[in-house]
Amino acid sequence: xxxxxxxxxxxxxxxxxxxxxxxxxxxxxxxxxxxxxxxxxxxxxx
Length: 46
Description:
This protein is mainly alpha-helical. The chain has one domain. Helices cover 76% and strands 0% of the residues. It has helices spanning 2-22, 27-40. Helix 1 runs antiparallel to helix 2 (27-40).
């Protein structure tokens, strides 16, 4: 249970660090955003 929260927090932190530096359209930023969306929808549901 706590592991998922931790992963989500790390995901969000990485995104917050990279987005201002790389820009919203950078592939790394888009990949992190997609990962964060998957974190929010654990069973792959949208």
